Amino acid sequence: MAMMASPRATLECVTAFGMTDFTADVAQIRLPTLVVHGTADKIVPIAATAQRMAQMVPHATAIDYDGAPHGLAATHGDRLLDDLKAFLAA
């Protein structure tokens, strides 16, 4: 997918999410939140993103997919769908 995107847009996206402090925005989240991340993600580090988000958001539910890559919606779609349905039903 990334190969079909604009190289400049891809780089600007990485710069934007890598250099922007969203702490104040995250502090405003009041809804139950599901954080899903693959442990084998080589693009977005799990400790700096998903694990940090789960700690910052009250009532967050975190699910780590052992061995799942960055595109886990494509590789683990059935499991993700099941987890989303369970989260929404709770």
Descriptive account of the structure:
With 90 residues, the chain is of the alpha+beta class. 46% of the residues lie in helices and 13% in strands. A two-stranded parallel ribbon has the order 1-2. β1, α3 and β2 form a beta-alpha-beta unit. The radius of gyration is 14 Å and the shape is globular.
Cα shape: globular
Q: What is the number of helical segments per DSSP (H or I, 4+ residues)?
A: 5
For this entry, what is the oligomeric state of its chains? Answer: single chain
Report the helical percentage: 40-55%
Order of helices and strands: HHEHEHH
Strand order of the largest sheet: 1-2
| CA-CA gap between termini | 33 Å
What is the gyration radius calculated from CA atoms?
14 Å
Query: Would you report the number of β strands?
Result: 2
Structural class: alpha+beta
Mean pLDDT: 93
Note the main sheet: 2 strands, parallel
Keywords:
about 90 residues; 5 helices; two-stranded parallel ribbon; alpha+beta
Q: Topology, please?
A:
Elements: H1 7-19, H2 23-26, E1 33-38, H3 50-56, E2 60-65, H4 72-75, H5 77-89
Parallel strand pairs: 1-2
Can you give me a brief rundown of this structure?
This protein is an alpha+beta fold. Helices cover about 45% and strands about 15% of the residues.
